[in-house]
Amino acid sequence: xxxxxxxxxxxxxxxxxxxxxxxxxxxxxxxxxxxxxxxxxxxxxxxxxxxxxxxxxxxxxxxxxxxxxxxxxxxxxxxxxxxxxxxxxxxxxxxxxxxxxxxxxxxxxxxxxxxxxxxxxxxxxxxxxxxxxxxxxxxxxxxxxxxxxxxxxxxxxxxxxxxxxxxxxxxxxxxxxxxxxxxxxxxxxxxxxxxxxxxxxxxxxxxxxxxxxxxxxxxxxxxxxxxxxxxxxxxxxxxxxxxxxxxxxxxxxxxxxxxxxxxxxxxxxxxxxxxxxxxxxxxxxxxxxxxxxxxxxxxxxxxxxxxxxxxxxxxxxxxxxxxxxxxxxxxxxxxxxxxxxxxxxxxxxxxxxxxxxxxxxxxxxxxxxxxxxxxxxxxxxxxxxxxxxxxxxxxxxxxxxxxxxxxxxxxxxxxxxxxxxxxxxxxxxxxxxxxxxxxxxxxxxxxxxxxxxxxxxxxxxxxxxxxxxxxxxxxxxxxxxxxxxxxxxxxxxxxxxxxxxxxxxxxxxxxxxxxxxxxxxxxxxxxxxxxxxxxxxxxxxxxxxxxxxxxxxxxxxxxxxxxxxxxxxxxxxxxxxxxxxxxxxxxxxxxxxxxxxxxxxxxxxxxxxxxxxxxxxxxxxxxxxxxxxxxxxxxxxxxxxxxxxxxxxxxxxxxxxxxxxxxxxxxxxxxxxxxxxxxxxxxxxxxxxxxxxxxxxxxxxxxxxxxxxxxxxxxxxxxxxxxxxxxxxxxxxxxxxxxxxxxxxxxxxxxxxxxxxxxxxxxxxxxxx
Length: 769
What we know:
About 55% of the residues lie in helices and about 20% in strands. β24 (about 650-655), α26 (about 660-665) and β25 (about 670-675) form a beta-alpha-beta unit.
């Protein structure tokens, strides 16, 4: 049985079961410190009224929630999140500035606390570890005075978060930090009180050392805070691509009032139907259509296309692109959240916040991680207390603290989302728009790419390949005939006639004063006209035969060779005989051959699907280096071809751009819609290429492979770190080598584990696509 097919049909059922009133919203969550916080918020939101599904991403501090609009109560959801000790900013459309301001404020606050705790902890370490330290620093009372601000002012965030979790009957990473440091601090406080109330000799009676561990508690808090500071700074870099996209948006527009007066208005005030003036060097404010003037527009920031695009009256312009040369007026068609850039930003946010299937295991582990660690720490204390060497109480406490502190759910929680944020952001900067994390994960496993011929392998518009003259015709007569062909074809609306006109336009041919009489465009056959009292015919073989014009055997043989190459031939007859024939073909894109070769290197098979006959299809495919072809496939049959390949256990990517490609794009394991394609095609695809460049197909697969490799590295590190170091903290090395882990080293390792995961994710920025 084909499981992939079953999964797909299940997806379709889910999609059809989704109610019309369901809507996806995303909003910022303030105050989360770790992955466990995100898990708790997600659990709370999922139980809120009207919430169908909730996902909370710790890396970008964003909740993506599917809601039933008729049932959802935003206030109740925000209140539920507030009960946990966090803030949900529901209803804010653009929360990027808020997130950035919060990050800056948190970094500023952390820096101040780090400086204070750094100084106090240094003094504590000198007093505890340097044999010739000033006597005042070695006093346990002075140590208590130095450690208290670190424990309760600097460490206040951990207590607040742990308390919020406790009253909501849950746990998080701050629970572990609060427990670990409190054990060290309050044990030491008890020692100081006993020293001053009963005297140092009291400890001798019970064989317990009167040693304090204030420096341990303070160092743990300081090192974890340093790790958090570095992590927040690094996390800021993971969302740089999104910040750049948001920064592209125009802030103002020049509105042309009905009186003709031009006024500058805020971009938020622009409405659909407004006429706007765009001057050279300015950003196009919103999506629209040029109504007067012409220019060339730099669209590289949205589509990645490096060359400016010529624009004239009637052409569409995209908001946030830059008007390079001319000045023009445009009518606003899409404004606010409807513009192409806003949609790209929203898609990038949703993709960065989505969860790939690989994340499910992490979520399962994270949900039980903290309670499991607390149980392990208690077990560690019991084992050391009953089986460990003297002083048993101190050794038991030290190992217990080490277990609580070294465990790091943060590294686990950051492993997937940070890689996703960088990967999806890098894609968007390179013209590759990834709709969700699942598309990224599946693209990594693709074994076959099915290309729709038109617009993907070929340019999608016919071009003249050659013009051949029949018989001995002088250069002067050839030039005259070309002028006649040019002038007559200009009167036709047929795409092949357009290809001929473009061919001559590129050669900068100017219009000549040739009198054309009785012009007639015969649908599906060709054109005819009277030029200098002679009949001119341009069209198919059948069209010429209809007018009793004979085509010689020699011409037929030459034309047959061109047709075998996949070219369409238009005959030109003048004065009752064939004088020329024009070979026209939909040329393959320059990069197509390189793309197919690149995919082959990755071990991926390329197949072309087309409605053309086998001979023409084979000719085009061989030019691109494609060995396998599905020819004479009707548009509605493309989906069946995809299904057949999936039944053969192939992981299929379908690349297309038309409305008739939408079913195949949806049926494939991953659909890749070419830029310039229809909205329907883009909606059906998991990956959208923002420009019509086929070389982005292997680039998107390469990006998915690199991102998934990066996620796997992060997960191996995060799981490996916890699996290896928690037993070390428990004391497995003590029976063999007498090594008992110091809690200070445990806190340093814990702080580094999160930072190293984020640093590894940032390496994706340097990957070449």
